[in-house]
Structures are given as C-alpha cells and as structure tokens.
Amino acid sequence: MDEVLSARRARPARRFPRLTGALIAFPLLFASAAHAGTHPGQEQLVREVAKDTGKSKASLNALLDGAKKQQAILDAISRPAEGKPWRDYRPIFLTEQRIAAGADFYRQHRALLDDIGRKYGVPPEYIVAIVGVETFYGRNTGKWKVLDALTTLAFYYPKRAPFFREQLK
Length: 169
What we know:
By secondary structure, the chain is an all-alpha fold. The chain has helices at residues 2-37, 42-53, 57-65, 71-78, 86-93, 96-108, 110-120, 124-135, 146-156, 161-168.
C-alpha cells in the first residue's frame, strides 16, 4: 500500500516540468496564428507599415485585428453607380441650408483648407464642395466605421485593393 501511495505522489512531480512547458508554449501558438490569418494580406501590410513608420507590429496587428469585414460594404461598392443627370441632383445639394453650412465650414477651417490647397494643388472650394456633398459638413458620417470600411476594401475587394491598402496605411 505504501508503494502505491508513493508512486501516486511521484507522478505529479514527474509531470510538472512537461505541464509547465506546455502551459508556456500554448499561448505562443496562438500569438503567431492570430496575426497571420485575421485578414488575408494583413501580415504583409503590417510589415510594410512597421518598417515605414517605426510603429510596432503588435500595435498595428491589434488595430487591424479589431476591424471587421463588412459584407454590406462589398455589396454596396459592387453595385453600379446611379446615372442621374446633374439637374436631378442640383435641388438636393444646392439648398440655402447647405450653402450656408458650406460658408460656415470654409470660414471655420480656412487656414487648414488653404494649407491643403497649397500642398496638394486642390482649390479649397473644391474640398468644401466635396465635404458638403459627401457629409453635409459632418452631419452625415455614414453607417460604417472607417477602419472597418478600409480593411474590408483593402483585404476583400481585389479590384481596388491596392488603392485601399494605401489608404489604410
């Protein structure tokens, strides 16, 4: 009987080094796998951005790991664009309210808009007009997170992936 008890007590002691080794190695298996497969091409993009910016791969992976593929975005970008003539859009975009909001936006951001205009060669009025059409000067910001949209298009929309990968950088 003493021999049986002795053998049982000895077993955990012999297993302890193996168990400890397994517990240490187990998280490492998931650490490398998590970054290799979250999004196709993520590993390569993270390497490029880390090299170009000096940002850590871990922080870049953490950011991209949180982004979600949005099928609705892929569906929306795959639909053909509307073919309405300008006369149909004009009453929507050229309203007293939108014109006043555009003038306020321009006054409020004039220094920045002028800097952008000089740096990129885009007249500030064009930028103001685009912001007005696309967001009504920040009132309509869309239904998708920017990071989800860029990640979805950069990794899951091959037709324009190079463009959206650059935007994601």
